[in-house]
Amino acid sequence: MRRVMAWVGRFAASLLFRRVEVAGEERYPRDRPVLLVANHFNGLVDPVVITAALGRTPRFIAKASLRRVPLAGLLLRGLGVVFVGRQSDVGGAGGNDDAFAECHAALADGDVVAIFPEGTTHDRPRIDPLKTGAARIALGARAAGAAGLAIVPVGLTFPDKVALRSSALVQFGVPIELDVASPAPAGPTDMDAVRRLTAVIDRGLRAVSPDFPDVETALALEQAAQVALSSPTDPDPPLEARYDLARRLGRSSPDEQTAVRRDIGRYATLLRGLHLTDGDLIAPTSPTRLVRSALGIAVLVVLLGGVVAATALINIWPAVLVALISLSVKAPVSKGTARVLVGVLAFPVAWITAGVLTTDGAVRVTLVVLTAAVGALAAIWLVERAMALTQMLLRWQAQRERIGTVAVAAEVRAEVVDTVRAVAGSFCVR
What we know:
The protein is of the alpha/beta class. It is about 60% helix and about 10% strand. It has three domains: about 1-205, Glycerol-3-phosphate (1)-acyltransferase (3-Layer(aba) Sandwich), CATH 3.40.1130; about 215-275 and about 405-425, no CATH class; about 285-400, no CATH class. Helix 8 packs across helix 9 (about 240-250).
């Protein structure tokens, strides 16, 4: 079942996100036991993107209260999820010996275990203080025979958790070699060793995760990094470079951060007042791009229009259901969880129901299910490209009408780039 869920995770990620960028994958050791430690900013979406990035389903550690959710607890257990009690749960964190032993055995067998050491999901733009569970599991697994255990930090970054079809970054950090960070015979009952290892894990995770004091600072530094890295030849730089630079700016002095925030604020205000975007300055829309995009959509309509039309009635109601559920959820951190839970259930039910009602035989039903799944993806692609073409037309019109104000905005943009360069050095700044 874990192998099947790896495919489901990839498919779900392809529906949720326009782009999932995986960085540092070459650091991930595939020849020994691994304990993944990840930040937890987006609820159930976090394990989905980790699974999609790895191409396999780790043994995730989850709060014990999920085990009591009807059907979900049984499904999660079948996926190898290990349930642990938290201090905030009824009954506290006591009684986790069996759960920890299960993790130790899995790692001793060379498996991959994943934990969110903050202990809970949240909407803050920074890492919460880490619990000691990851360190205790690692030390206990070594005592149980997990040789060469590596602890791999995984940073999960979502530029926009609310929007559908946004982007995500999965960034693997430098593996923490347990035998180097905490030499034997230190074990899980050695609290000094546990605290030292937790501190090492904390540093590793912060190096690849968003870690800003507040939302305003996070947005300002991320925007400044985006502007500094964008260029006519690369108007959409990799998320890894963008957030590495933002974190670098976040480690600068308060005065330097104030200078960056001042200049990016001036630039954002100017663009808003002139009804321009940063892309209008560095990569203006041309008639050639418009024609090329229109032709591309026409080709897609010819190739995919049939399957989209044939499956529209099947896919429309689960899509509407996901949208309605998403609108009813207010907290950004919970929207992704709601979309995943409803989408993973509603779409397959719609596909299977359509197959059973319209044809006979397992092969034919399977063919209907696969066709409906392809139709869902094709519909997303067509809608996205149509929206992109519409946006391109609007931007082209704005650029033509406001050509005289571009030079003013370009001067302020140059000041932003110069300030970022002065604060961050030559770190990938163009």
